[in-house]
Structures are given as structure tokens and as C-alpha cells.
Specification:
This protein is α+β, with helices and mostly antiparallel strands. The strands form 2 sheets. The chain has a 4-stranded antiparallel beta sheet, covered by helices on one side. It is 45% helix and 17% strand. It has 5 helices and 7 strands; from the N terminus they run E-H-H-E-E-E-E-E-E-H-H-H.
Length: 227
């Protein structure tokens, strides 16, 4: 690969996987929400023969439903700036957000780290335990920032299936257009990128699909057993 034949790579979506992920999240949410609606039934001795208890229960249902609605609205509002699309070309990484704003992480704007013994392109771990994830970091316009290659709110966007390939393409672009920058070896290891060919191993996508199917089966079994 040379600078001249470095081709643009666009995000691709998968509607089936998106629906599967949405269904998984919905079933998990349902597993936590249904018991909330059942709490009054456990506390009241006889809701069917007591008019007052029925009124209290109806009021509880209305308030709980309203609070859940407000929670959903706040989540939507908080994610209005989430990524809806992205691409990588000779200039760098280009984001499009849900609010139609755009942002460019250009190769020319990447900066070397002040400390020579620290890599300029590196990885960091966010979260703790099972919820932790590895993210790509770069020094861009005087700040260390996270580079995301996946839309973060799948309820308004379709799941990007080639995020790994987009990341690998961006890393390859750095080696071509910014050879002065040092890439930490963990970037290639953690993101399954071949250090010579920059090919991406798609096992992560298959793993996500398998985990989604397992989650759905387990949650459906729990719901069927208890409800």
C-alpha cells in the first residue's frame, strides 16, 4: 500500500445484527422493568377486593411509566451527539453525528507525544471488569482523545459492522502519512490488526453476534420460567 492507492473506506451497516442487538437490550431491560411493576402486588395483601389498593396500584403504574418515559427521553437527548456515520480517507477520519454536525480527525493534526519514551498512538482501558473495553487514543490538537469507530447509540443508527476494518485502515493511514508517529504494539494486539498487512481479524464481529444470540436465549428462558 502506498499513499497514491490509499482508498477511502466507508462504514457499512447490518440491519439484521442491529435488530438483534436492539432485541437483546430490550429483553435485558424488560427483565429489570417487569419486577418494578410487580412490587405493589407483593406488598398488598389483596388488590382485587380493595378499591383503595387498586387506586394506589394504578397511581404507582402511572408514575412508574412516566419516570421510565422521562428516562428514555433523557437517554435520547444525551445521545443526540452520538456518531451516525464515519469514513477514513487520505486526509484522516471523518465523523458525522446524529445532529448532522461533522468532525475531522486529520492525519496532519495528530501530534507526537512530548515524552519520547511514550507512544503517540496507544490504547487505554475504559471501565472495570466485564464492562471494560479497550479504546484507541491519539494526541490531536494539543489533547489526548479517544478515537471511536462505532456508532454509540444503535437505537437511532444501524450497527457498523466494519468498525475493526475502519480502525485498521486509519492505523495504516498513520503509517503512510505520518511515519513520524510511534504506534504502540498493543494497538495491533488489542484490535487484532496484522502489523504488516493491516488486515483485520473479524472474529470480534462473530463473537458479538454469538453473544447476542446467547443473551437472547438465556433471557427468553428466564422470562418464560418466571413469568
Amino acid at each position: 500500500m502506498t499513499k497514491e492507492n490509499f482508498q477511502p473506506l466507508y462504514a457499512t451497516n447490518n440491519l439484521t445484527l442491529t435488530r438483534l442487538l436492539r432485541l437483546t437490550f430490550f429483553l435485558i431491560s424488560l427483565l429489570f422493568i417487569l419486577p418494578l411493576y410487580s412490587i405493589p402486588l407483593l406488598l398488598m395483601d389483596d388488590i382485587t377486593n380493595s378499591g383503595i389498593n387498586s387506586i394506589y396500584y394504578a397511581l404507582y403504574i402511572v408514575i412508574l411509566t412516566y419516570l421510565l418515559y422521562q428516562l428514555i427521553k433523557s437517554i435520547q437527548k444525551a445521545n443526540k451527539n452520538s456518531i451516525s456515520n464515519l469514513m477514513v480517507d487520505k486526509e484522516g477520519l471523518h465523523y458525522t453525528f446524529l445532529n448532522k454536525n461533522t468532525e475531522d480527525i486529520l492525519f496532519k493534526d495528530l501530534l507526537p507525544y512530548k515524552q519520547s519514551y511514550t507512544a503517540d498512538i496507544l490504547t487505554r482501558t475504559e471501565g472495570i471488569g466485564a464492562s471494560s473495553k479497550t479504546v484507541l487514543m491519539a494526541h490531536h490538537k494539543q489533547q489526548l482523545r479517544k478515537l471511536s469507530f462505532q456508532n454509540t447509540f444503535i437505537f437511532s443508527n444501524q450497527y457498523i459492522t466494519n468498525s475493526g476494518a475502519l480502525r485498521a485502515h486509519y492505523i495504516q493511514g498513520i503509517t503512510l502519512f505520518r511515519p513520524d508517529l510511534k504506534i504502540d504494539p498493543s494497538v495491533f494486539t488489542n484490535f487484532h490488526i496484522h502489523p504488516q498487512t493491516f488486515a483485520y481479524n473479524q472474529k470480534d464481529l462473530k463473537k458479538a453476534l454469538l453473544l447476542s444470540i446467547i443473551f437472547i436465549c438465556v433471557i427468553l428462558s428466564i422470562i418464560y420460567y418466571y413469568f
